[in-house]
Amino acid sequence: MKINLPEDGHRQFNLSALLKYLVDSKRYFIVVGQQHEKLEKHTKDLSLDYWIRKNIAVNKDTAQATDNVVEQICATGLFTVTKNACPNTGVSSKAIELI
Fold first, then answer.
1. pLDDT tens-digit readout, 2-46
2. Could you list the residue range(s) of the whole structural domain that residue 75 is in?
């Protein structure tokens, strides 16, 4: 399943890459963590926004985990939007969780 990124409408990633990342990190959720900062100043390196920027996005200094991206991921039926403790800050944050 392909997820379209906001940066140019043509860049996509395969949802299986995100699933592999979660399995490898032994987590069942990932905080959205969208930030409007350059990648080097991003404070949530365990977030969806950081993961997309670091691994997939062409423009790594643009927020990538937009509402539309989250909606596409949840529309697959594999994830739902939740609130979970951010692994970086401990604060309850918007997240997507495996169903």
1. 999 987 667 899 999 999 999 999 999 999 999 999 999 999 999
2. 2-98
